[in-house]
Amino acid sequence: MAGKRADTLSFEAALEELEQIVQRMEQGDLPLDESLKQFERGIQLVRTGQARLSQAEQKVRILLADQDGEEQLVPFDPTQGEQ
């Protein structure tokens, strides 16, 4: 998965790859150049994840807005939507 551009990955795919990078780097046996490449890729993946979360937050805000565009606070109900 490391060959894909970070900004084209789903949140879950970016998180999974980031976890793999962290595990490899924690082992401490990567050469410095490879560690730097992995760190750079990790930063790209973090930014992708943050962007995906921001997009999701914006969608939720839009869905929860009333007719006047004002956000409405709605208590969280984990059973809502269950059938």
TrEMBL record:
Subcellular compartments: Cytoplasm
Organism superkingdom: Bacteria
Keywords in alphabetical order: Cytoplasm, Exonuclease, Hydrolase, Nuclease
UniProt cross-references to InterPro entries, sorted A to Z: Exonuc_VII_S, Exonuc_VII_ssu_sf
A single MF term (Gene Ontology): exodeoxyribonuclease VII activity
EC number(s) from the headed UniProt entry: 3.1.11.6
Subcellular location, principal: cytoplasm
Enzyme class, spelled out: hydrolase
Catalytic activity, as annotated: Exonucleolytic cleavage in either 5'- to 3'- or 3'- to 5'-direction to yield nucleoside 5'-phosphates
Function: Bidirectionally degrades single-stranded DNA into large acid-insoluble oligonucleotides, which are then degraded further into small acid-soluble oligonucleotides.
HAMAP family: Exonuc_7_S (MF_00337)
Subunit organization: Heterooligomer composed of large and small subunits.
Family: Belongs to the XseB family.
Protein's name according to its UniProt entry: Exodeoxyribonuclease 7 small subunit
Origin organism lineage: Bacteria, Pseudomonadati, Pseudomonadota, Gammaproteobacteria, Aeromonadales
